[in-house]
Amino acid sequence: MASKKKRNSTEGKENLVSPFPDEVLECVLGFVMSHRDRSSVSLVCKDWYSADRWSRTHVFIGNCYSVSPEILVRRFPNIRSVTLKGKPRFSDFNLVPANWGADIQSWLEVFASAYPHLEELRLKRMTVTDESLEFLAHSFPNFKALALVSCDGFSTDGLATIATYCKNLTELDILENGIEDLGGGWLSCFPENFSSLEILNFANLNSEVSFDALERLVTRCRSLKVLKANKSVTLEQLQRLLSRAPQLVELGSGSFSQDLTFQQYAELKNAFNNCRNLHTLSGLWEASSLYLPALYPACVNLTFLNLSYASLQSAEFAKLLPNCPLLRRLWVLDTVEDKGLEAVGSSCPLLEELRVFPAEPVVGGGGGVTESGFVAVSRGCRKLHYTLYFCRQMTNAAVATVVQNCPDFTHFRVCIMNPCQPDHLTNEPMDEAFGSVVKTCTKLRRLAVSGLLTDLSFEYIGRYAKNLETLSVAFAGSSDRGMQCVLEGCPKLRKLEIRDCPFGNVALLSGLERYESMRSLWMSACTVTMNGCRLLAREMPRAKKGCPSLRSHPLRIIISMHGRLSR
Amino acid sequence: MSLCLFESVISRPYIYKAKVAALILSLRPQFATMGKATHSSSSSIDSSKHPTLSSASSSLYHQSKTNTDLSSDLRLGLTLSTSTSLLPDTLSNSDSREPSTDWPPVKPPQRNTVAEKGNNRQRPIFFVKVYMEGVPIGRKLDLFAHHSYDGLIATLAHMFSITILYPNMDRVHSDKDHVLTYEDKEGDWMMVGDVPWEMFLTTVKRLQITRADRC
Questions:
Q1: Given an 8 Å threshold on Cβ–Cβ distance, is A561 in contact with B27?
Q2: Which residues 45-64 in chain B show a CB within 8 A of chain A?
Q3: What is the pTM of this model?
Q4: Where does the record place the region Disordered (chain B) (predicted)?
Q5: Which are the contacts of B48, defined by CB distance < 8 A and separation ≥ 6?
Q6: Beta-carbon separation of A261 and B50 below 8 A
Q7: Tens digits of per-residue pLDDT, A203-212?
Q8: Cβ of residue A536 closer than 8 Å to a chain B Cβ
Q9: What domains can you pick out in chain A, each with its CATH number?
Q10: Looking at the complex, does the CB of residue B68 fall below 8 Å from at least one CB of chain A?
Q11: What is the pLDDT of residues B6-35, one digit of tens each?
C-alpha cells in the first residue's frame, strides 16, 4: 500500500511528493478488496477519496438503515455488486416482529436508474417480496448473482421470475429464508438454452422439483461448481446428477436414505469416486450408516463437512471421519455425543472450526454433548479457532483447558442450553470459564456467553477482551455494572446483543460515548424503561450531515421489552 | 443514527415513529415498577436459577400490573429488580406447554428438520431370519446391532452354541463346525464374509447356518 502522505490539494501540484496520475491510483486501489480497507483508503485525502469513489465496484452495507440508497449512488457511481444486511441477528430466533422493515424495494428502485449494469445482489435478513424479485429480473439485464440469506417476504413464484428472465444468471443461492414454498415448479423455468449457472443452492426449499428439469439443467451448465439440492432429491437421483457433474466442488446432497439395490449402491459409490474435487459437502438428510461409506472416496479433499441435518450416531461418525483428513470446518449434530467428538479430536488434526448443534433444541432436554467432548476436541485439534457449541452442561475447568489447548480462538460461542446453569461440578457461576477465554485468547473477536454469570464475567470481558467486536449475552449479569464494564472496556466493540439481563437505563446511558463507533446494540427483556430510551435518543450526538463515511456506520439501537404497550 | 424500539409480538404490535428515528416500545410488566428490591451481587448467585422458580417473579408481576402509568417513571434504573426474576417468565410460557422458539438460539430451518426426525431418533434396526440347518424353527437377529462380521459371528455362535467358520480363517475344520451363508437380493446362497460388511448389509435377506462338510 502506498504511503498515506497527507496532501493539501489546494496548494497546487508543485508541493506534492511524487504524485501519480489518478488512473494509476485507481488501478492500484482496484486490488484493495476488503471493504474495511477501502473505507480506510477513502479517508486518507480528497484525491484518494475520489479515486476510491470512482473505482469501487462492490459495496458492503452492514446496516441498511445506516445510509440511504440515494446517498450511496451519489457517492459510488460504478457499483456492480451490493451486499446489504437488514434486520438484527436476533430476528433469526423470532425476536423481531414481522413488518419491522429492511425492505429491499426502495433500494432496487434507486439502483435501477443509477446502476443499470448491476450484476450481484447479496442480501441478509432483508424483506424481499415477489414483486421486488420481478422488478429485479426486469431491471438489470446483466444480472448475474443473487444470494438471499435469512430473508423473508417472498415465495417460490419470485424465484420463478428470476429463473425465467435473468439470462446471464451465474449464481442463485437461497439459504434459510422464510420463503413461502408454493411448489418446485420454479426450477423448470430456466430456459432450455440457459447454461451459465455456476452456483445453485436450493437446499432449504421443501417442495419437490422436477428431477428431469434439474438433470437437464445440470447437464447443460458445464461450469456448475456448486450444487446444493433439497431433500426431495433421492440417492438414486443424486447419483445421476453426480455423474453429469463430476466437476462439482461443493455438493449438498438430498435425502441420504433409500432402498437401494446392490447395483445402485455400486453406482453411487462409483459416482462419488469420480467427484474428487469436492471441498464442501452438506445435506445428507436422514443419512443412514448403510450408505455413508459410499461417500468415503469423495471426502479425500474435503475441507468443510456440514452434518447439521444428519442425525449420526457416534459409531458411524467415527468411521466417516478418518476419510476426511484435510477437514478444516465441521458442523455436526450433538447426536454424535462426546464419543463422536473424541473421534474428531483424533481424526481431524487440521480442524479450525467446529459447530455442534442440538438435535433437541429445547430447554431441559437430555442427551447431547458435554464438557468432556469439548476438551477431547481441543486436545486433538490445536488449530481450532472457531467454535459454536450447544451443550447441556459445562464446567469452568473444562473451558480453561480448552482455551489452554487452543489459545488462538477468534470466535468462541458456547451455549449452555439451560439458562443460568452453573458449573455442574462445583455449582459456581461460569464467570471463570469466560474469564479464562478472554485472558488467554487475545485474538478473540466474537464471544457468546451462557450459563450462570455474575457481573464478574463482564469485568473480565471489559478488562481483557480488547479485540472483541461482537458480544452476545443472554440471561446473565447481576447489575448495570456488567454492561458498563463491557462498554467501557472493549474499544473495538461493534455489535452488542443482550436479552433477558438485568441491565437498565444506567447501563444503557453509560454507553453514549461508545455507540457512535458501533454498528448496533440490541437489548430485549432487560430493565430499560421508556424514559431511558427517550433520554438516549435525546442525548446521543446527531448523525453527521453531509457526506457520511460508510466506515462509521450510524448506530442502530434496538430495544424491545415484552409486555403491554405503553401509552 | 437510527434508534429503534419495538414491542414484542406477544402484545399488540404498534409502530410509531419519532423525528429522529423509529421508536417502537412496550414495557414488561415486571419492570414497570422500579420496585424497592435491593440488588446485591450475591443475590444472583444464591438460590437455584431454574426456570421453574416462580415465587419471586409472580409477586413482581402482580405488583406491576397495577402500575400502568409509565410516564411517572423517572428513576433511571437506580433501583433494579434482581436478575432472579427474569428467568422464569421469559422461557416458561405459563399459558402454554409449547417450547419457546427463541431459545436456545437455533435457526428455524434446522429446528424444523430436527423436529421431524425427533421421533426417529432411535437407532435404525434390520432384523433378518436365521435358520440352523436341520432345525425347523428359526431365530431373528438385528444386523444393525453389529458393526462387523466378527460381532455377527460371535452373536450367532452364542445364540446357537456352535462354532462358525468363515473365509480366511486359520483353522482346519472338523465335521462339527458350521458355516454361515446368506441369501442375497438376487436369490443366491452365498458364503458370508467375502464382501465388505456394508455391502453385505445392502444385499442380505436371510441367514442360514449349514454344516461345514456340505460346502
A1: yes
A2: 45, 49-51
A3: 0.75
A4: 37-60, 87-118
A5: none
A6: no
A7: 999 899 999 9
A8: yes
A9: 1-56 (1.20.1280.50), 59-180 (3.80.10.10), 402-567 (3.80.10.10)
A10: yes
A11: 544 333 333 332 222 222 232 233 333 333
